[in-house]
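**Folding the chain**
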Amino acid sequence: MARGEQIDALPPLEWLRVFEAAGRLGNFTEAANELGLTQAAVSQRIRNLESRLSTHLFLRHARGVELTADGEAYLPHVQNALTALVRSTADLFGAARSKITIATPSSVAQLWIAPRLVALAVDQPNLQISVTTVHRPADYAAAEADFDVRFGVGEWQDRRAVRLFEEVLAPVAAPLLIEGSRIDWRRLPQIAVSGPRDGWREWAAASGVAPPRPPSLRFDSFAPALHAAKSGAGVLLASLALTVAALQAGTLVRLPEQSVQMEQGYWLTWPVSGVVLTGHEIIVSALCQSDGMVI
């Protein structure tokens, strides 16, 4: 049966509302008063519904009505359906909602933005957020988002920018990989991340140390590289801001090596011209909020 035919097979919503009220109250007159109808109108809609279903839903008595076995079986299904419809309508349309979209690299979405959405929802309960992940610079134009998270020095034509976090890089590893090991960590497997962020060679040059051996694992984004490091697959040159949760939980530890701060980093950006969004300042403040951990 096609979807349209399924909908046509349903009784009219008005008949179901009348049936629910009459069944719940056990009285056509009280149901009429609750719904703002006449008693005759309630009786007519119940008869129409019974005719559509080819069954009796009520036993009529001089002092009221009583549900039949079919009526008792049908009533809770109707009540659940009406309740779900009321709830869905209220959730979607009960209050004016502001909608924003954020285009961001997937690792920043997972490790930086997502942990801040709970606090943002408290401050902006009527804010609806849609997050779109981007993989290439060209993806930003296709996303047509209200906010973009971009990597650079904070200068883009016709866009305002606020730095999300300082990009500080340092080697990290799972405790199980380095505890009790007498091997120089530079001889352990290295994990690298493709993209614009500095790599092992740049870190070594800035730190004034000999570079470790070439990486044995390479990922195209930071989040899976982080998971690999937590599993003990190797030493990762980590963005410390995106590694705060793992460091606080002890699933990763910093190695006793120098950290390097990059000039570039991740920025929350939006067009210079355009519609000013409701709660714009709160959105910027919430997403640019630090974890409070000294890195």
User: Anything to note?
Assistant: The chain is about 40% helix and 20% strand. Residues 3-93 form a domain with the Arc Repressor Mutant, subunit A fold (CATH 1.10.10.10). The longest strand covers residues 98-105. The mean pLDDT is 86.
